[in-house]
């Protein structure tokens, strides 16, 4: 079994085989590790690119800028236009495919303009066991996944991030806000703002692993870590939180008794393997 040091060297060796690269950089732990690796391996020939739209949670763009500066990698911010695509906003289970297609199409044009050889993403081997329609878009655009190619699990990624002193090594997963909207319910900037502000309210109260899921009828389903659910139970807390979320536009506010589960809406989808991973 490869040690973390072995995998680290394998990762850097793989990236050195590219003359230059652009990293799809979201400021999550996976893409941050890839950005750091590309900076170490390629120096000025590596670029981090962050796509922004209404689906990006508050604070994530600022964190991306800060992390890029800390790593020392050139950073470019682009605006993506997935909301112009009805196949995205209607929010079928393949929504992520249309989002990533928009991102990678823009990156294709950007890399041609900048003379970059390859686009990299932050997918790791654990992603193959989840529902990831975005990987089909990555395959169609010849996007490479160096962490997965070098056998990195999510635990390996976090360990390497800690080894490199990256402050996001223990950052909770922060998928796009559209992932909070139940499949079949239209994704709109207004609904995503409701979700974003609701999650910020919960984080302000000390909750770290948080999801506010949007369901039909303007219903909010709150997920926090199972061992923190009790903090939401006191009557005063529930009443205050419900009132705050109603002010944001939610008509009903519920607490999920199973607690936080990353990608819990995917339980509604018949999962299959990711053949394009």
Description:
The protein has 277 residues and is an alpha/beta fold. The chain has two domains: 4-163, 3-Layer(aba) Sandwich (Rossmann fold), CATH 3.40.50; 177-266, Alpha-Beta Plaits (2-Layer Sandwich). Helix content is 41%, strand content 13%. It has helices at residues 4-16, 29-42, 60-71, 86-89, 95-114, 134-140, 146-149, 154-163, 189-204, 235-248, and strands spanning 21-24, 46-52, 74-79, 118-120, 210-215, 219-224, 252-255. The strands form two sheets. The chain has a four-stranded parallel β-sheet with strand order 3-2-1-4, sandwiched between helices. It has a three-stranded mixed β-sheet with strand order 5-6-7, covered by helices on one side. β6 (219-224), α10 (235-248) and β7 (252-255) form a beta-alpha-beta unit. α1 crosses α2. The longest helix is centred in the middle third of the chain and has 20 residues, at 95-114. The model is unreliable at 271-275 (pLDDT under 50).
Give the termini distance in whole angstroms: 22 Å
CATH topology of the largest domain: Rossmann fold
CATH superfamily of the largest domain: HUPs
Number of domains: 2
The shape, in one word, is: globular
CATH architecture of the largest domain: 3-Layer(aba) Sandwich
How many helices does DSSP assign?
10
